Amino acid sequence: MTKKARLIYNPVSGHEQMPKNVADILDTMEQAGYEASAFRTTREKQSAQKEATRAAQAGFELIVAAGGDGTINEVVNGIAFLDKRPKMAIIPAGTTNDYARALHIPRENIAEASKVILKHKTQKMDIGQATFAGENQYFVNIAACGSLTELTYGVPSEIKSALGYTAYLIKGAEMLPNLTENELRLTYDEGVYEGKLAMLLLGMTNTIGGFEQVMPDAELCDGLFQLMIVKTSEPVKLLRLMVLAMNGKHVDDNDIIYTKTTSLKIELLGKSVGKKLPVNLDGEIGDYCPVTFKNLQQRIEFYVGE
Length: 306
Description:
The protein has helices spanning about 15, 20-30, 45-55, 70-80, 100, 110-115, 150-155, 155-165, 165-175, 235-245; strands at about 5-10, 35-40, 60-65, 85-90, 120-130, 135-140, 140-145, 180-190, 190-195, 200-205, 225-230, 255-260, 265-270, 280, 285-290, 290-305. α3 (about 45-55) packs parallel to α4 (about 70-80) and α8 crosses α9 (about 165-175). A hairpin with a 2-residue loop joins β14 and β15 (about 285-290). The protein contains 10 helices and 16 strands.
């Protein structure tokens, strides 16, 4: 019986290059041994996520997510909660394509990225689960909280498309003088941190916003998050940390807590109680604190590059 594969693609990703590549991608999927079909996402909320769930429940063995990190996140959210999950492949066509970078998928050529499935090399990857008031959401690359994380969703998409990484640097420089601290209780495997902080990152990979040394010890399938807590919000100290982060030396700084954990609980303390503190999942606002995170080890099997 022929295996079925579904291409879920965002037509506006990659400077709207996706539609003209669909036929070639479907042909590659057929060469890989799948009966292939395509779904073009719409403006409906969670369009890719809903189609991923439908395809998985219909018995599709592979879902190919083509678009930016947001499209990939939606497809993951469409299947991560299921008992029987299809394999996934990704075709990057966004601005930073962090997860494609982590999986060694070609990021400059859509057709070449699709050919990764022809090599039949897969790896079961960890998935992050965030629970807000009993409701679960999932992520594959990064969860973040704190005033500095606003730069990931505070940059308009058209500016990100035009300037790439530079857009984040410009936004970060603009925000530094106005950063505020939040008072939180963080409960993780090695203990509890209570106090003020500018930002925390919970990473699945080593790449954030295109920078590859932010989480230098990241593994993709060990069941552990990389937890980074930035305790200072002083602009001068943050600029120094940004410079150190270019080569991974920030993790040893006194203003940083860097550890591994299977779970994390975030609670508001002091003057932060009652605030709507957003939690960013793969570059988009997921929901608001409090939140509990759990690492779902080797939850989804992905096609990976060399």
